[in-house]
UniProtKB/TrEMBL annotation:
Protein name: Acetate operon repressor
Short name of one Pfam family: IclR_C
Signal peptide: none
Region (Disordered): 1-24
Name of the gene: iclR
Organism in which the protein naturally occurs: Roseivivax jejudonensis
Lineage of source species: Bacteria, Pseudomonadati, Pseudomonadota, Alphaproteobacteria, Rhodobacterales
A GO MF term: DNA binding
UniProt domain IclR-ED: residue ranges: 92-275
Domain HTH iclR-type: 30-91
């Protein structure tokens, strides 16, 4: 019997993907799985949809969509509401999404900072990161006030009409910022939204200089937000912290005092994840 060859270089390193991982051709794509993920993503954008509506809007046969939904239901990724005959995203999808948040210590480290910020200001505190041309809200500590802002984890908001979004844009390199804004455009949400690119650039320059951003009813009338940037170990912008609430409580006279607390909170989180306490400005 031929002796077994011994690899003297040590144990072979485990691979997370095959050598041809970059090959995205049809042979490496599971069509049924891709279709299922497409249906799940589509359903997640609604507050519940009927089978016929999903099939019609996606251009799929009801039988195919039904089989996918039943399979996802078995894993808890979708749920069916029999009274109204509507399908919804299930708790299982949230559990998987929550596990994504544990990939980084950012969310974990931010929780006590957000809690303190909410207690100091009396307003809802938020954490968000950039996801393409939008802010993806990762965490929130709500105020107990009856009228309050609400951005549950997973909520997306346009970068140009968000306090956190503008704080991130102000510290983003010019090429990436212009690319994102060029693709997404500057949609108007209220009469205060900055839809002129030069006006937005001027605002971003001021944000970078003073260290905080203000969403002055630019996304939602009657709501104001104050945000500051969070930096990682390399001094790169990685997230933003904010407080948000109605203009009846966050009036213009309160912005200087509140901005100081938001900046302090953002610097505390920056330090907690190993970033520079005083980020370099250019």
């Amino acid at each position: 019997m031929k002796p077994k060859e011994i690899d003297e270089t040590g144990p072979r390193r485990a691979r997370g993907r095959p050598r041809d991982w970059h090959d995205k051709t049809e042979q490496n794509t599971i069509k049924s799985l891709d279709r299922a993920m497409e249906i799940l993503e589509f359903l997640s954008e609604s507050r519940g949809m009927a089978l016929t509506a999903i099939a019609g809007q996606m251009g799929q046969s009801p039988a195919t969509v039904y089989r996918v939904l039943v399979t996802l239901e078995g894993r808890g990724l979708v749920e069916f509401e029999p009274d109204e005959q509507l399908w919804h995203v299930g708790a299982g999808a949230f559990v998987i999404g929550a596990r994504f948040l544990r990939r980084t210590s950012l969310v974990e480290r931010a929780r006590p900072v957000l809690r303190t910020l909410m207690e100091e200001t009396g307003e809802t505190a938020n954490l968000g990161i950039a996801k393409e041309a939008a802010v993806l809200f990762l965490s929130q500590v709500e105020t107990e006030a009856s009228i309050r802002a609400f951005f549950p984890p997973g909520t997306l908001s346009p970068l140009h009409a968000s306090g956190i979004g503008k704080a991130i844009l102000a510290h983003m390199d010019d090429a990436r910022r212009d690319r994102l804004l060029g693709v997404a455009g500057l949609a108007a949400f209220t009469e205060h939204t900055l839809t002129d690119l030069q006006l937005l650039r001027d605002d971003l320059q001021q944000i970078r200089a003073r260290g905080y951003a203000v969403d002055n009813e630019e996304k939602t009338a009657g709501m104001r937000c104050i945000a500051a940037p969070v930096f990682d170990l390399s001094g790169e912008i990685v997230a933003g912290l904010s407080v948000s609430g109605p203009t009846s409580r966050i009036d213009r006279d309160q912005i200087p005092a509140l901005s100081g607390r938001v900046i302090a909170a953002a610097r505390a989180l920056t330090a907690a994840i190993g970033g520079p306490v005083t980020p370099p400005r250019t």
